[in-house]
Recover the amino acids of this structure.
């Protein structure tokens, strides 16, 4: 139990450290990523207003039909392409990438690369 508490505290610290750095330098909306074992999701958030401009997830109906499993790099790339498309529709072209507590590696990096190829600037 004690180890779980320590890991939870470390994750929170990591998240706060990343988000604090982004908020102090950001005039652009934030592209926040959440990764679980089975799914990956992201949303573009305007911190000044506290509103979500657009979001994409492997649990969306459109994306569920395209992908077989939501916990791999192919699914992350599909979500990255979808968020770039939805961001353009919302009028957003530049974002700050918020990886949260997750390393920029694997699925998180695949999502970011697909969003870049879709036209978002980090």
């Amino acid at each position: 139990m004690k180890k779980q508490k320590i890991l939870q505290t470390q994750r929170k610290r990591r998240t706060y450290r990343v988000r604090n750095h982004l908020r102090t330098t950001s005039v652009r909306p934030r592209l926040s990523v959440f990764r679980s074992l089975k799914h990956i999701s992201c949303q573009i958030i305007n911190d000044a207003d506290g509103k979500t401009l657009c979001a994409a997830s492997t649990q969306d109906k459109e994306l569920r039909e395209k992908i077989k499993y939501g916990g791999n790099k192919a699914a992350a790339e599909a979500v990255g392409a979808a968020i770039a498309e939805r961001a353009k529709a919302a009028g957003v072209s530049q974002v700050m990438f918020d990886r949260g507590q997750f390393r920029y590696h694997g699925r998180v990096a695949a999502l970011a690369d697909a969003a870049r190829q879709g036209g978002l600037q980090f």
In short: Strands lie at 30-35, 40-46, 51-57, 96-98.
